[in-house]
Every structure is written in C-alpha cells, then in structure tokens.
C-alpha cells in the first residue's frame, strides 16, 4: 500500500450517518408541540438545559482543564438577571436573554482574573466560594425577594406569547435552541485553531506553551464564553420554573454535582459523553424518582462506580470497542480503496 | 465594647473553624486529596453524637469518646476501600468520588434522621459564661477553642516527633520513594484518613452542641474549613488555626456591621487574601 492511497480526514462513515440522524432528530424535536403532551415537553426542555450545562462544564473540565465546582454561580446569576431585566428594565424575556449573556460574560471577567490565580484544587474551591458570594449577595437584595426569593410577575409571563400553549411551545423551543446553539458553538470552537490549542493544553501544558500557545488567554476565553452561555441556560431554567430563590438558584448539588455526574457517566472530554450521560441521568431519574432520596443515593453510587471502573465513561467504552466518533473532531488516516478507519 | 466582644467571639469561633479545617489540612497535605464530602462527614459525626447521647443517655462531650473511634474506623475503611483508588495526578477522580460520597451521605442522613434540625443537648454548659470586666465569655466557645489548640498542638507534635508523622511527611514529599523505602502508602493514607476523621468527629460534636444542624449544612462547613486551610497555607497546622481565627473574626465583625453580612464578610476576606497571597500566609508544602 503506497502513501498516495492514504489521506487524512476528519470524516468517517459514522460521523456522516450521525449528522443525518441529528438533522432528523432535530426536525422531530422542533415539531414536538404538535405531538408531545405538556408534561413531556417540560421534561424534554429540562433535559435540553441539563445537556447544555453538561456540555459547557465538559468544555471547561474536559478540554480546558478548568475543574470548576462553582458553575452554579452563573446559573443563578443568569436566572436573577432574567428576572431583573424583565421586572425592572421592562425587557421581554426573549430579548432579556441577550442581555443575560452579555452580563454573564462581563461579570465573569473580574472573577476569572481572581480565580485564575488559583490552581487545581484551590481553583475548584475558589469557584465554589464565588458562587456562595453570589448566593449571599442576592439574598441581601430585597427588591428580588431577599432570602425567600420572588416569582415572575404574571404580566411578564403573559407578554411572552398569547395563550398558555403558545407560551409553553416558545419556552420549549428556546430550550431546544439554546441546546443546539451550545453544542454547535462548542463543536465549532473545538474544530477551530483555538480548539486545537485547547486540546494541546489539555494533553500537555508545558509542551503547548513551548509551541507558542498563550495558555492563560485560551483558558480565559473558554471561561468567559462558558460563563455567558451558562448564564443563558440558567435564565431559561428559571423561566421554566417562574420562581427563583437564592438556595435554588445557587444550588451546588443541582447545577454542579449532578452535571459532573452526567459528564463523567457519559464520558468526559468527548462531545458525545454529555449527551449519553444526560439520557442516562434522566432515565434513572424518571424510573427511580418515586423512591425519593434512594434515587440520589443510587446516582451517587453509579457515578462513583463509573469513575473507578470506567473513568472514560460509557461513551469511552463504546468508542474503544467500535472505534466510533460521531462528532468529527479527531483526525484519522484512511486508505482511498478500503475506506476503513485505521 | 461591642467591637471588642465581637473580636473575642470571632477568635473563639475561629477555634471551631480550625477544627473543621484540621482534618482537611491533614489529608490535603499528606495525599493531596480534595475531600468534598468533608463537611458532610462533620454533619455525620454530629448525628452519630446525637444517636449515642440518646441511646446511652450521656452528655455529648462523653459521647465523643464513642464517636471518635467510629469516625476513625469509617475513615480507614473509606480510604482503603474507595479513596485510594482515586489518587494520582488527576484532580477529577477524587473530586468526583467525594462529590458522590457527599450526595450519598446527605441523602442517607435525610432518610435516617429526616430533614428536621437537631441539636446536641449539653445542659448548663451551653449557657455558662465567665465574666471578664464588662465582657462575658461563653464557656462552650472557650472550651471549643481550647480543644482546637490542643488537637492542633498534638497533631503538630505527632507530625514532627513520631514515626507515624515521619511516614506522613515522607508520603507527602514523594509517594513513590516513600514506597521504595518500605512504607505501605495505602496503609499510611488509611491511617491519615482515620486520624482526619477522628478530628472531624470532635468537630462534628462541638458543632452539634453549638448550633442546630440538618443534613444539608455540610457544604458550608466544608467551605469554611477549606478557607481556613488556604488562608493559613497548605500543610501548616498552626497556619490553619490562624486561618480559622481570621475567618471567624471576619465573620463576627461583618455580623456586627449588619447581621446579614456575617458569611459574606468571611468569604470576601478569603477572596481578598487569595488575590494577594494565592498560597496563603504560611505554606509548607506546594499544592
């Protein structure tokens, strides 16, 4: 076999099939208001938002090596900013989402400058302290209900769309749209020059910096983008709930621990992992939720077992077994005749 | 006068935080393990204290003699059974596994003891006080502070004057070479965790005597402990006491200005310190 018969490509048969399947699934999901019940739509919207959070945390921890346990800071901040922008600035909730993204990105800049002084475990704890500062600060704001929180006024909810069905469809589509945007953004980012730099940093920080990659700036960019998008996801979470309180908005279990479980169960450092992890999480939740706290105990046990026995997660097992890659990120050598991945 | 009172209360509160932090500092220093479940283990110790006091009908401080060996045994089994498998260069496995433990402990406590706030009843000790001039200082906070100083002094002595302490320092400096020199690091780590949770048992009982507790409060105790460790500098036990005192004083002075600012003042002080001293005031080993 001579060298002319070989070429390097990102595409594979599996990734082609996956992209077709993704389009079909997307069309089905967009048309959900036509075929799904209200409860199902709410559940799916929640799933989309959790998948978005998991994808974003995975970008930070799995690709940029920024293991944060304080992303609930931005979930809660996004929620509170949505409530503030609609209640005090009179913006419509949909327009307010853009403002939330900008504010989330802006507020993360000084925070990044501070927590980036910390490394490893210190960084993780530092981000958690920031989230606590956010929680305690918002609990002091009496116009937002202080420690007991506030509900979104009915006039604002009604201004979203005419009728309950239309509002629920809009809220569902927003969640779906944000999920698609987050996955696409992360995918395109990872395929870009910056993404390549990120993979290099993850694999070996010293080698990456000797190749001229500015590690600090690359990580900073990832942190700020993630913060902005996480804020939008947070805004949508509380647009669904219609009520916000400091303890719910800045819950470390809901918005960080479970998200980490999802990413690790699915497979960290892959784009497919969070998708599988989210599906497994919701499957467990919907089948075991009647057992109350037992379900959370089971979730903790599953996460621990996966981390100890299969640290690459479920997708890691699948990928090693069948050499699959649904999102064409890595490069592979193919021969022009046989078209088999090597 | 109010300010001096707040200052003294803060220093004494710092003793409790140093107790939260001493166990963390020990395991973080010896094996670089970030134990997210530490706060929940403190709460677990408080509940064990509750069960022992109710079952045996004894004073909480006496119950400590039962809770300490129980927590130490839990620590050794936990380390040998699960946590040893997570150690390595990667931060994520220990972080995730202890996050899992945290969720498990919280929900087991919820299942067994319900979400109702509980308290350990220490009788007259809770209200006893000593008058110094115009100030009156509670006996309980003073006792907590004294216990914290005694525990840190003995941990420090153990670290630098016993063969166990030498083993701890050896694995902390270089695990592989310590192993080559004939130390079984898995066993050493097990002992370190047992010791850390024995200290945690004391911390849990003192917490339970001081305030109400319920299964959800572990996270905040973990953060206080970590802040004290980081302010003081990693691997420095006396530094941890200083860190606890700084945090306690910041909180009581904050509360003196506005009751709602107590915790916020502590966190902001911590963030200000790491902005200038990212490794704390007196670091002994690198993170």
Instruction: Report, as a whole number of angstroms, the end-to-end distance of chain A.
Output: 13 Å
Strand ordering within the main sheet of chain A: 1-4
- Quickly name the level 1 CATH class of chain B: Mainly Alpha
Number of DSSP strand runs of chain A: 4
Oligomer: heterodimer
Q: From the 3D coordinates, which CATH architecture of chain B would you assign?
A: Orthogonal Bundle
CATH fold group of chain B: ABC transporter involved in vitamin B12 uptake, BtuC
Q: Hey, roughly how much beta strand do the residues of chain A contain? A: under 5%
Order of SSEs of chain A, N→C? EHHHHHHEHHHHHEHHHHHE
Largest sheet strand order of chain B: 1-2
Q: Spell the H/E element sequence of chain B.
A: HHHHEEHHHHHHH
Radius of gyration of chain A: 21 Å
Rg of chain B, Cα atoms, Å = 19 Å
* Major β-sheet annotation of chain A: 2 strands, antiparallel
Mean pLDDT of chain A: 87
Number of domains of chain B: 1
What percent of residues of chain A adopt helix (DSSP H or I)? over 70%
Largest interface: chains, residues each = A-B, 42 and 42 residues
Helix tally of chain A? 16
The total domain count of chain A is 1
Description:
The complex is a heterodimer of chains A (342) and B (287). Chain A is mainly α and 342 residues long. Chain A contains 16 helices and 4 strands. The longest helix of chain A has 28 residues, at 164-191. Residues 338-342 of chain A have low confidence and may be disordered. By secondary structure, chain B is an all-alpha fold. Chain B has helices at residues 2-31, 38-56, 60-81, 92-113, 139-161, 163-173, 175-180, 185-210, 218-232, 237-257, 262-276; strands spanning 129-132, 135-138. The radius of gyration of chain B is 19 Å and the shape is globular. Chain B has 11 helices and 2 strands. In chain B, a hairpin with a 2-residue loop joins strand 1 and strand 2 (135-138). Classes of the chains: A mainly alpha (342), B mainly alpha (287). Chains A and B meet through helix 6, helix 13 and helix 15 of A and helix 4, helix 9 and helix 11 of B. Chain B: It is found in: Cell inner membrane. Chain B: Pfam families: BPD_transp_2.
């Amino acid at each position: 076999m001579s060298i002319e018969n070989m070429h390097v490509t990102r595409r594979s048969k599996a990734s082609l099939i996956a992209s077709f399947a993704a389009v079909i699934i997307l069309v089905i999901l967009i048309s959900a208001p036509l075929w799904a019940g209200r409860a199902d739509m709410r559940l799916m919207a929640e799933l989309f938002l959790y998948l978005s959070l998991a994808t974003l945390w995975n970008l930070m921890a799995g690709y940029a090596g920024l293991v944060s346990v304080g992303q609930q800071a931005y979930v809660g901040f996004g929620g509170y900013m949505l409530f503030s922008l609609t209640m005090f600035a009179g913006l419509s909730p949909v327009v307010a989402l853009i403002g939330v993204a900008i504010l989330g990105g802006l507020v993360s800049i000084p925070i990044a400058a501070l927590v980036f002084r910390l490394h490893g475990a210190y960084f993780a704890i530092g981000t958690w302290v920031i989230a606590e500062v956010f929680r305690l600060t918002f609990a002091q704001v009496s116009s937002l209900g202080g420690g007991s929180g506030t509900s979104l006024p009915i006039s604002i909810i009604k201004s979203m769309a005419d009728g309950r069905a239309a509002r629920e469809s809009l809220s569902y589509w927003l969640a779906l749209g944000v999920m698609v945007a987050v996955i696409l953004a992360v995918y395109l980012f990872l395929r870009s020059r910056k993404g390549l730099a990120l993979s290099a940093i993850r694999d070996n920080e010293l080698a990456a910096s000797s190749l001229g990659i500015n590690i600090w700036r690359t990580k900073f960019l990832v942190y700020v983008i993630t913060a902005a998008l996480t804020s939008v996801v947070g805004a949508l979470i509380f647009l669904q709930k219609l009520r916000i309180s400091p303890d719910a908005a800045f819950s470390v279990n809901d918005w960080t621990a479970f998200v980490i479980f999802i990413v690790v169960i699915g497979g960290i450092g892959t784009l497919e992992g969070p998708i599988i992890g989210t599906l497994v999480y919701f499957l467990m939740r919907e089948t075991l939720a009647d057992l109350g706290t037992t379900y959370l105990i089971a979730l903790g046990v599953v996460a621990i077992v996966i981390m100890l026995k299969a640290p690459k997660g479920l997708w890691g097992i699948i990928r090693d077994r069948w050499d699959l890659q649904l999102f064409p990120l890595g490069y592979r050598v193919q021969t022009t005749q046989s078209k088999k991945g090597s | 006068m109010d300010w001096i009172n707040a200052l003294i209360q803060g220093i004494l509160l710092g003793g409790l935080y140093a107790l939260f932090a001493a166990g963390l500092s020990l395991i973080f220093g010896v094996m670089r393990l970030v134990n997210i479940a530490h706060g929940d283990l403190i709460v677990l110790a408080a509940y064990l204290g509750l069960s022992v006091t109710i079952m045996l009908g004894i004073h909480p401080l006496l119950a400590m003699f039962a809770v300490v060996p129980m927590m130490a045994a839990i620590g050794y089994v936990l380390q040998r059974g699960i946590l040893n498998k997570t150690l390595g260069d990667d931060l994520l496995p220990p972080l995730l596994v202890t996050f899992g433990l945290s969720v498990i402990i919280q929900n087991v406590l919820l299942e067994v003891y319900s979400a109702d706030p509980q308290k350990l009843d220490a009788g007259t000790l809770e209200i006893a006080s000593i008058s110094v001039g115009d100030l009156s200082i509670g006996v309980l906070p003073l006792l907590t502070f004294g216990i914290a100083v005694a525990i840190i002094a003995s941990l420090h002595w153990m670290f630098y004057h016993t063969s166990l302490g030498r083993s701890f320092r050896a694995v902390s400096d270089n695990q592989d070479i310590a192993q080559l020199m004939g130390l079984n690091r898995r066993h050493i780590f097990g002992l370190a965790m047992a010791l850390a949770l024995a200290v945690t048992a004391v911390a849990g009982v003192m917490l339970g005597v001081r305030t109400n507790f319920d299964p959800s409060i572990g996270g905040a105790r973990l953060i206080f402990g970590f802040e004290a460790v980081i302010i003081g500098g990693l691997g420095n036990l006396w530094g941890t006491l200083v860190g606890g005192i700084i945090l306690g004083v910041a909180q009581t002075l904050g509360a003196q200005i506005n009751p709602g600012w107590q915790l916020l003042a502590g966190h902001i002080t911590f963030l200000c310190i790491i902005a200038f001293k990212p490794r704390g005031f007196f670091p002994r080993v690198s993170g």
